[in-house]
Amino acid sequence: MTSMTSPSPDTDGTSLFDGDPDVVPGPRRSAEGFDRVPPQDLEAERSVLGGMELSRDAIADVIEILKGREFYLPAHETIYAVIVEMYGKGEPADPITVAAELTRRGELTRVGGAPYLHALVQSVPTAANAAYYAEIVRERWKLRQAVETGTRITAMGYAQEADPEEVVESAAAELLALKASFDTGKDPAGWDTPLAELLDEWEEAQAEGENPGLPMPYSDLQSMLGTVPGHLVVVAGRPGMGKSVVLLDFMRHLAVVHGKPAAFVSLEMARRQIMNRLIAAEAEIPQHAVRTRAMDAEEWKKYDKVKNTLAQAPLRLIVPPGGITVAQIRSNLRRWAIEDRLPAALAVDYLQIVKPEAGRGANRTNEVDGIARGLKELALEFDLPIFAAAQLSRLTTATTDRVPQLSHLRESGEIEQAADAVVLLHREDYYEPESIRAGEIDLIVAKNREGSTGIVTCAFRGRFSRVDDMAQG
């Protein structure tokens, strides 16, 4: 929108606003030496306030657009706050009543006096356009915010002692915070949201029908967990128990079967190893044949049938060279958020080998605690479910039945605390190859904030690098 023109002078050569409050911030001098006034439109601000003084309907329209912070002139923000407060109390908010309230607060002179309040009304022919003027005010505020953010980022770049990676991370955080500040919708954190509004949101969600949570390849586990954005789900087991298989199954099912974007971050395998497993699982070709490049004609036919499906699946396989920290994961998620490319779920394989942040001390327990808390914070910050594999300690093998327990989570008690759900993996044939339960895997839901705990038994098809529901297996 273009800026509005300046108000016309009266016949005696004076403006209606000759009595403007003397609190207008001055122009800023740029590095090039030019005076620059931050983006603003004072006439639009006056028109908003004048319309609000004329009509209660205008007040209702404006408060849907502005919070008050958007005004360039501090006096205008003060007047706006008084009008909104009086409106909230059911009191009339005209020039006379607003002047009386400002007098009571000792602020009338600072905002220009009673004549200024009357001049605001006289400058507006109708209150019907108040929302339009409010949009102009908001646009100018957005531009000022962008200028201020850019200035801070520039200052960080010029700091001689700054670490380049920290500067980029901070800049990304500044840009995301800027984007979030433009949201004038309901307060997502709950500081200002009345319970009545939350009840309305809850009822609307209920009216949409059943929400089974994130699609999972194992139906019983899906109904038990009901995983939703913000959840951290830990899948734990001893080495070779099938953690990577299960995690890749989750992401493969999400992307290939349901067409939802998913990301699999591997800190253990090379990309070709993940691709071997992915192809073996989707085409049901023995992993050995895929790995050794010994596929026969029939197996190549199976591959050809799934090739296009895999190629079109929105699945990202990420193998960070040199490992990755929680901060680096956050940085990439921020970039995806800015580009509107966030996945529906993220898997990390595995938690204990995520790199600790530099300078956090050598205490291994504290490092793993920080990683677990960090992954949970990422799930909440970016509103997506995160699945993380975790290693169990050797204590598992010391028990009589070798069934894992929460206390066997290796190196950290914080993993259990941070996770919304913990799924422990157990296979009897891992220890006894001739067991009558050979080919079965128990997914033991040992912790579940959103529902019940219990055991889901599935078919472990290790040669194909996949796990299936028992009916499928």
Describe the model:
By secondary structure, the chain is an alpha/beta fold. The protein has two domains: 28-181, DNAb Helicase, Chain A, CATH 1.10.860.10; 219-469, P-loop containing nucleotide triphosphate hydrolases (Rossmann fold, 3-Layer(aba) Sandwich), CATH 3.40.50. Helices cover 46% and strands 12% of the residues. The protein has 18 helices and eleven strands. The strands form two sheets. It has a nine-stranded mixed beta sheet. A two-stranded antiparallel ribbon has the order 1-2. Strand 1 (28-29) and strand 2 form a beta hairpin. Helix 1 packs antiparallel against helix 6. The chain is elongated. The termini are far apart. The model is unreliable at 1-14 and 29-34 (pLDDT under 50).
How many distinct folded domains?
2
Strand order of the largest sheet: 5-4-6-7-3-8-9-10-11
Largest sheet: 9 strands, mixed
The number of distinct β-strands equals 11
Question: Which H/E pattern describes the elements?
Answer: EEHHHHHHHHHEHEHHHEHEHEHHEHEEE
Q: What's the gyration radius in Å?
A: 30 Å
Q: Which structural class do you get from the secondary structure elements? A: alpha/beta
Helical amount = 40-55%
GO molecular function: helicase activity
Enzyme class: isomerase
EC number: 5.6.2.3
Region (Disordered): 1-40
